[in-house]
Amino acid sequence: MDDQGREVVLTFLSHYDAIKAKREIDSGKLVPVPRAISSSCGTALKCTLSDYLNHKGVKKEEAYIREEEKWSVLHL
User: How does DSSP assign 8-29, residue by residue?
Assistant: First the structure.
């Protein structure tokens, strides 16, 4: 898989922000926040790195990328 297809999880301060982000990144999927990640509202948006990069203005708490078997904060 190329880097642009890597899995990204966005966390949010509120469920409302998560729903708004889903409207912007329509290919994303609302999911519970993975146990290894802490979040304020418990709802996350899973999408590809490419989708995230195309919508970096989305209001979020944090962005995480899956590296091997763990989640790391995505720094761009």
Answer: EEEE-SSHHHHHHHHHHSTT-E
